[in-house]
Each structure stands twice: as structure tokens, then as C-alpha cells.
Amino acid sequence: MLGQVVTATTAAEQFALRRRSPVQRVQHVLHSYPAISPFLVLVISFAVFTMINPRFAQPNSLSLVLQQVAVIGALAVGQTLIILTAGIDLSVGAVTILAMMLSAKLAEGNGLPGILAVLVGIALGVAAGALNGTLVTRIGLPPFIVTLGTLSVFTAIGLLYTRGQSVQAVDLPALLNWTGETFAVGRFRITAGVVLVAVLYVVVGFALANTAWGRHVYAVGDDKEAARLAGIRVDRVLVSVYVIAGAIYGLTAWILIGRAGAASPNAITDANLESITAVVIGGTSLFGGRGAVLGTLLGALIVGFFRSGLSLAGVDDQYRVLAVGLLVLVAVAVDQWIRRVRA
Amino acid sequence: MNTSMTPVLSARGLVKTFGRVVGLDGVDIDLFPGEVLAVIGDNGAGKSTLIKCLTGALVPDAGSMSLDGQPVQFKRPQDAREAGIETVYQTLAVAPALDIASNLYLGRERLRPGPLGSVLRMLDKKGMRRDASQALADLGIGTLQNMAQPVETLSGGQRQAVAVARAAAFGSKVIVLDEPTAALGVRESNQVLKMIGEVRSRGLPVILISHNMPHVFEVADRIHIQRLGRCGGLITPQSHTMSEAVAIMTGATTLDETPGRVGGGA
Ligand SMILES: Nc1ncnc2c1ncn2[C@@H]1O[C@H](COP(=O)(O)OP(=O)(O)OP(=O)(O)O)[C@@H](O)[C@H]1O
Ligand SMILES: [Mg+2]
After folding, report:
1. Pick from A240, A287, A343: which is nearest to B152 by CA?
2. Residue nearest to atom 12 of ligand 1 (CA)
3. Could you tell me the residue range of the domain that residue A69 belongs to?
4. Position in ligand 1 atom list of the atom nearest CA B229
5. 20 to 30 A Cα–Cα from B1, which one of B89, B98, B142, B203?
6. What is the pLDDT of residues B83-102, one digit of tens each?
């Protein structure tokens, strides 16, 4: 009897293998390696934009893309962590601006030393993340609502605190502007901020892929109740994610000062949507549990390529908005499709 | 069953309510060393609620519990896990996007030896995959080869096997299975029954919830009949027939009216 059973299984397995069409194979590969589709989009857009205007591929314009992408790319790391837990963070921009304005105001005109100002900015991000995380876990409100609320709260506090006024780079200690400093790498011009962002990706990517904490982030985003029953402290994981995301926003505030050459309460108004866009184009699922920061990096670069490529092609900037919007829709549709994969 | 033995797991007067719904209305249960205790009952009789209270997934409103004679209180599932109680919940509690090995080790991941583990907190993925594969092989599951395969790509039976293998691999005191064969075909069900036998032969007591009377009567040493949130009777496969068990379970009769054969009962 056992023999019969085993044969039947093997036959069934062979049947399953034989039935797999080329489309299903693609679905399977994408399911195992979700970063493939954004990677292909990146490569293709690079080729197309270079064909339209060869200046696109020159080191100086690519260097500019990197510098432009750095801030949103950094924020998108935090956003990725939160989206992996099936959450969403609408307060990204507000927290970053508040952290930036706080450290700039405190450091303005020989106030706080630069290093302390940076740390204060990160601490503010941590506090904001702890607030978001606590509201999500303790009160059990949906992340969308919590961060919609804290978005307004932090924006208002930022404007009230600064009375809408900017702080110029000349009034700031050198360390705060350091992230904007450029140096040459071959024929590329890289800023210290870009290097910081690269380090951020490596560290968070490593933690997600190779530590127990990373496993727990995925498990919680996948199925909260299953994770709880499997013995994971779900609330702790969630709070840790919001706190780490907040710390990343605080660090990004520093990168933003260097990039903008000033601290202005009206900077990065589109940070929320742009960071979510990078995450989604990068193949991370809005339903949680699926994705990686590598995809987000590719997503952020794709948006940067479209901005640079279309402007070098002499196309109206609205076409970039249009193209990115379409990419988001396609990315979400692909995600839905690959989620339906079955053995 | 030798009643002078100390139960491994014991609970008295468990009460659990959900608002106005009464899930458990004062339930006593004892699990003795090396036995398979089946829990049967209609839908909504409180079987899952009972084992959730025993395993820390729910905190009972009232009642007491002891493990090896020592009073215990489980506030969350990992308290019970740390005490050696492993559970396959009715919902399986696996993370679909994570692979088989990650699911087996979820919540108790193993770190790499040396500074890679102690400083960088790096997971020992290779070791976990190797041992996961061994754990599945120990339970006679040969069809799962690739431990890096995401659980969502597995069939229902294979998922069940992963959940059961996790419980069997880590349970050191008690294993609790809530309808482990509910969605399974004949072959997979038999495999799970075989697993239960293997677990028992390691000396671990098992609590098995099932609607499948032939399975229950095949593997159980004693049968706890759960009815309307209470214990409707404690029988054995020797003392009562399947139809008597079903009659008690559905309220067509009571244990007092159907005491069963002499020497039966609990
Ligand atoms: N989280 C909950 N919230 C509200 N009511 C609940 C909850 N969990 C269980 N109940 C109720 O408690 C009672 C017992 O449910 P339980 O899940 O223990 O039944 P069961 O015996 O496991 O049934 P089944 O055979 O269908 O699995 C039911 O009336 C159910 O509706
Ligand atoms: Mg149940």
C-alpha cells in the first residue's frame, strides 16, 4: 500500500512539473527573486534613456541622479521596514523635517556642537517612531490612521517651532553640512550623504536577511496572529520597526541638510508619496511580509532615472509623473500576480 | 490509567468568555505521562479555546494550571513553549512567505558560532536547513526536499506536516494538536497519525483534537468529550463505542445514562 501511495505522489509531482507553462515559470522565478522585475526596469530604462540622449550615461549626470535619489532613497529604507510589517508611514516627511529643523535651530550660530545636533535629530526620529509604534500596538489603530494623525501633528509643531523660517548653511556648524560634501570616485562625484545612504542599505539589508529580528519582521508582516502563536513578541517587533525607521528619518534629516544646503521647513513636501513609490516599484508588497531593501534601492534609482532621463530627453516633467504613476500600478499588479503562486 | 501518577499537565476550573459568549465554562483536564488524550466535541464546543488556554494563546478568566505538579501561568504562547509545550494550532500558525526551515525555527532561531553570531547576530541558515530536513525525515516526510521553499508554495498537507514537525522537533513535555488532519487526504492523515505514534513512543504525551472518530479511536488512550463549554465526559476507546461517544458529544445521551463497559471510564 505504501508503495502505491509513493508512486501516486511521484506521478502527481511529475504532473505538476509538466503542467507548468512558461508564464508560470516566470511567475515562480519572480516569486523567488522579486528584485528581478525592478532590476530589469532599471536596466531597460538606462538603455533607453542613453539611446535618447547619450549624456544620460555620463558620470556627471549619473552622479547627480545618485545625489538626487539619496534623501528619498534613505527615507524609503524606513518606509520599507514599516511596509514589510503591513503598515504604512505617512509621517515620514514630517518627522524628517522636524528632526532637521530641531537640529539646525539648536546648532544655529554656534549653538549646539554639530555632533550633538545630529544626535538630537536622530533622537527626535526615535521618539517619533516610538510614538507611532506605541499608538499602533497599544491602541491598535491602523498605521495609516496613526501616521496620518502624527503627520499633521509633527508638521504643525515644525512650523510653529520655526515660525516657517529656514536656517542657511552658513549659520550651521560644518558637520551638519558635511553630508553635502563631494569627492571624486573615478569620474563620478559622490557626496558623503550618498555614502551614508549606501551604508544604510547594507546594514538594514543585512539585518533583514540574516538576523532573527529580520525573520520576525517578515513573519509579523505576513500573518500577525500566526507570528504571535509561533511565539514572537509581535508588539515588540512592531515598535522596534517604527523606532528604527524613525532613527533612519533622523539620520536622513542630516543628509537632507547637506543636500539642500539649508534647513527649510518646506523641504521634501512629497517625501511620503515618493518614499512609498520607491518601495512599491521595488517590489515590496503593501500587504506585508514580502520584499527587501534591495528592491527599494532599485525602485528609488528607477524614479531617479526617469527624472534625469526624461528631462535630458527634453520632455515635460509631467510625463515623468505620469510614467512613475504607471510604474506603481504595474508594480502592484505584478505583486498581486506573483502572490498567487502555487507549487 | 494509573491515577496515582502525577499528571504532566493539569488544569482545574478553566473559564474563558468572549464578551457574552462563553467559550469555556469551568473545565478540568489532566494529561498523564506518555498518553494520547483526544478531545472531541461539536463545532463551537470549546475545544480550541481549551487548548489555547492550556498553551498560552489565550489567558483564561479563571482557573488554575500546573505542569509536573508545579503551578504555572502562561501569559503568552512563548511562555508555554519555553516550558516545553508545543502546539499545532487549528490555523497552523505558519508564516507563508518564509521558507520551511525559517518556519521550523521561528522564534528560536539559531545563531552562527563565533563572532558572526555573537556580534553580528547572524543566523545559522545552513545548520537550520540541515536540521529542519532531518526533523521532517524523522517524521517520515520524504516529499519535502528543499528547506528553502516558501511555505505558501506547499500543499495543505505539506504545511500541516511542517507545523507538526515543528511541534514534534521542539516539544519536550507536551504536544498539542488541534485538528491536525482536518484538511488532509487519506495519505497525509495516516502520516500524521503515524507521527503521533512516533511522538508517543518517545514518551511525550499528546493532546489531539479531532472530528475524525476512527482516528480518535485508533490512537487515543483516553477521550475528553467537550460539550457546550464543559466536559461532557471522559471515556476510553475500550469503555465506549464510537456511536456512544458521538451520542454523548451531541447531547443525545449523557455519560451517566451511558456509563460504558465495566472497567471503562477514566
Ligand atoms: N476570539 C473569539 N472571539 C469570540 N468568540 C470566540 C472566540 N474564540 C472562540 N469563540 C467562541 O467560543 C466558542 C468555542 O469556540 P472554539 O473555537 O473553542 O470551538 P471548537 O470546539 O474548537 O470548534 P471547531 O470544531 O469548529 O474548531 C464558540 O462559540 C466560539 O464562537
Ligand atoms: Mg477548533
Report:
1. A343
2. B23
3. 60-268
4. 14
5. B89
6. 999 999 998 889 988 999 99
